[in-house]
Every structure is written in structure tokens, then in C-alpha cells.
């Protein structure tokens, strides 16, 4: 997939306010600070295209980015340890679930998991929920630059075990820092939005 004319379209609190015209969508979800915005920035090759922060919980809305006028990248709020009230966290969760269940344009959910830290209970819950609702999803192991090349296979094996994935389930490995996995991920997105 070639990235042309990427642009931020809008932030919404509900999937019902999705932009028009409707286009195929790929969504990025994961724990706070797992690297969703950094991944999007790397894919579009523009620094600070999607806002990043060292502070967890920066993304608080559903953010739509138009890519090549042919699809939307959708950056969803992170879940986990963000320093916000329980009420606000529940609102985010409700917004994410509502989007995932109702978006008719959604082609794939990329579940980002920190390759060094491994999967947490919240990651397992999300993946089980996606499976239960038969929502297409795939795993992206982020921040692989923080794992030595010799340890990557061991880490991926651990991730598979934690997430209860079989050996045939593909996991994308990705690093926004050294661009590992960028072309593979773009190629896959290009196939699924056709």
C-alpha cells in the first residue's frame, strides 16, 4: 500500500459521528503507551502526525485519519493504567466497544501488544472479546527494537502462549523507531482494504 495524502479528519466520541464518505477502516487498539500513535506516524512517514505522549492516556477520542483517500486509519483510546477517573475509563471502554461492534466499514482491528512487556490481562480480555464477537483482528508486537534479535523468537513464543495463539497465527513485529515491520504491515493493510 502506498501512502498518499494522509490527513487527520476528525476526533469523535461515538462511532455514529464517523466521517463521510464512508471508507474501509482499520483500527489500532492496545494498552496505554503501547505505541498506537507512533505506529500510525511510522506508517504514514510523518513525525507527530498522530499525537504521541510519554504520559499514558493521551488518546481520549476515536481519531480518524484519511489515507490516500481510500481508507481510514482509526486510532482508538488506550486501555489500562491511564491516570483518569474510573468514570472516564468506562466511557472510553463503552466508546471503543460500540465502535468495534457497530462500524460497518471496519476491516481489521490491529491489537498492539508491547513485545518486551508481554501481554497483560486486559490484552487477553480484549482478544477474547473480539473472538467472541467474531471481529477480525491480528496482533502487532510493538517496540521490538527494545528486544535483542536473539531474544525475539523467545519473546514471540511467550506472547503466543500468553495470548493462547497457535503456532500458525501470524504476529506482526513492529518498531516505530527502526521501522521494522512497516512494509509488511502496509502490504497487509493494502490487501484487506481492497
Short description:
The protein is α/β, with parallel strands linked by helices.
Element layout with pairings:
Elements: E1 7-12, E2 25-30, H1 36-44, E3 62-67, E4 71-75, H2 86-102, E5 106-114, H3 121-132, E6 137-142, H4 149-163, E7 171-173, H5 182-192
Parallel strand pairs: 2-4, 2-5, 5-6, 6-7
Antiparallel strand pairs: 1-3, 3-4
Q: How would you sum up this structure, described in words?
A:
This protein is of the alpha/beta class and 194 residues long. It contains five helices and seven strands; from the N terminus they run E-E-H-E-E-H-E-H-E-H-E-H. It has helices at 36-44, 86-102, 121-132, 149-163, 182-192, and strands at 7-12, 25-30, 62-67, 71-75, 106-114, 137-142, 171-173. The protein has a seven-stranded mixed β-sheet with strand order 1-3-4-2-5-6-7, sandwiched between helices. Strand 3 and strand 4 (71-75) form a beta hairpin. The longest helix is centred in the middle third of the chain and has 17 residues, at 86-102. The protein is globular and about 45 Å long. The termini are close together.
N-to-C series of helices and strands: EEHEEHEHEHEH
Number of helices: 5
Q: Kindly state the number of beta strands.
A: 7
User: Which sequence of strands runs across the widest sheet?
Assistant: 1-3-4-2-5-6-7
- Poorly predicted runs: 53-58
Tell me the Rg in angstroms. 16 Å
How far is the first residue's CA from the last residue's CA? 10 Å
Largest sheet: 7 strands, mixed
Structural class: alpha/beta
How much of the sequence lies in strands comes to 15-25%
Overall 3D shape: globular
Task: Name the average pLDDT.
Answer: 88
Question: Level of helix content?
Answer: 25-40%
Amino acid at each position: 500500500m502506498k501512502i498518499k495524502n494522509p490527513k487527520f479528519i476528525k476526533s469523535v466520541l461515538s462511532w455514529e459521528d464517523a466521517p463521510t464518505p464512508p471508507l474501509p477502516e482499520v483500527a489500532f487498539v492496545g494498552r496505554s503507551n503501547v505505541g498506537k500513535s507512533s505506529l500510525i506516524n511510522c506508517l504514514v512517514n510523518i513525525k507527530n502526525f498522530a499525537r504521541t505522549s510519554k504520559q499514558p492516556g493521551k488518546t481520549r477520542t476515536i481519531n480518524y485519519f484519511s489515507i490516500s483517500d481510500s481508507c481510514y486509519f482509526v486510532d482508538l483510546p488506550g486501555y489500562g493504567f491511564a491516570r483518569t477517573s474510573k468514570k472516564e475509563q468506562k466511557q472510553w471502554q463503552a466508546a471503543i466497544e460500540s465502535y468495534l461492534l457497530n462500524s460497518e466499514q471496519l476491516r481489521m482491528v490491529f491489537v498492539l501488544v508491547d513485545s518486551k512487556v508481554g501481554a497483560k490481562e486486559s490484552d487477553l480480555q480484549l482478544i477474547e472479546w473480539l473472538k467472541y464477537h467474531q471481529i477480525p483482528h491480528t496482533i502487532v508486537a510493538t517496540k521490538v527494537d527494545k528486544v535483542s534479535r536473539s531474544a525475539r523468537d523467545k519473546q514471540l513464543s511467550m506472547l503466543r502462549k500468553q495470548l493462547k495463539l497457535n503456532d500458525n497465527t501470524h504476529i506482526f513485529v513492529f518498531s516505530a523507531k527502526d521501522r521494522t515491520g512497516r512494509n509488511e504491515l502496509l502490504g497487509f493493510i493494502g490487501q484487506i482494504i481492497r
